[in-house]
Amino acid sequence: MYKNELMNIENIYKDIKEHIILERSKILKHIDTTIVEVLSKKLINEFGSGFFPVRIRRIRKFYESYLIWSAVPTELSLSHSYE
User: FRET label pair with 65: which of 6, 12, 46, 72, CA 20 to 30 Å apart?
Assistant: First the structure.
């Protein structure tokens, strides 16, 4: 193959790769939003208010931030804002 053809293939590859990464990110965000909304409705039906999507995202963010539970200060509660 000629050098120009190889460069063209590399550019095409990079373009396709960027599109795949972008679309994958959009799909994951949509799935996450849909799951949180469905989970929120189910928790509210079972336990009452307090499980709005924003709160579930905060709980998740808290959990992801403190994967080592022994590092969580005992005086914290889930009512604190973590954004």
Answer: 46
